[in-house]
Write the structure tokens for this entry.
Amino acid sequence: MSSIAERLDTIRERISHAAARAGRTVQEVKLVAVSKTYSAEIVREAVDAGQLCFGENRVQEIQAKQPLLPSKLRWHLIGPVQSNKIRKVLPLVEMLQAVHSLEIAKDIQRIAGDLGLIPRVLLEVNLAAESTKHGFAPDRLARLLDELYSLDRLQIEGLMCIPPFDLDPEKSRRYFARLREIRDELEKIGGAPLPELSMGMSHDFEAAILEGATFVRVGSAIFGERNAIKKPL
Ligand SMILES: *Cc1c(COP(=O)(O)O)cnc(C)c1O
């Protein structure tokens, strides 16, 4: 079994390869190491190998791990945030990557105002209208854009997606291209830049980079397979 440091190295190499193939610089692609379900001790191995940005999908897990790890780390919430967790999570994270509804965006606006914060956020897009997934329908997002932009506490930096799972990255690639096109369209409609595209996971991050990903969210390829049964920390 290779170590976390070795696997991180491999991922970084694959990222720079994919970036080069896409004619992009490697700095344009930021690696979010998805540490959900892994202990602080395991996260520390990645930190020792130079990884500073981590993704979690549960607020409780961020709260539990953060005190055990260096304060220089940057945390992204990559799962949808529930209303009653916004106040807790805002001070803890660098970015909310999966803002999935207007209602939640309004709640973030209000609470960020209370806390004096201007959170960086991405809007999650439900590309294939999957009922099991969160996110804005693309056409609805276009209609809501003005209202979202009126929420002046939110720094809306781009879009995020989790396409339907397919082992074949070429299938995912169509969805990644689609997210980029939606972004381009929204930039025209809204007249504001949306530079960030968070897309691509362990099995398809290279396809995502070829289509313009600026954040790739990689978990199991770094930390190993997660247990099917969620263990507490
Ligand atoms: C778990 C998760 C990932 C990472 O998945 P891997 O297949 O382990 O790389 C990425 N994005 C989101 C939103 C996740 O929940």
Remarks:
- The first strand starts at residue 30 and ends at 34.
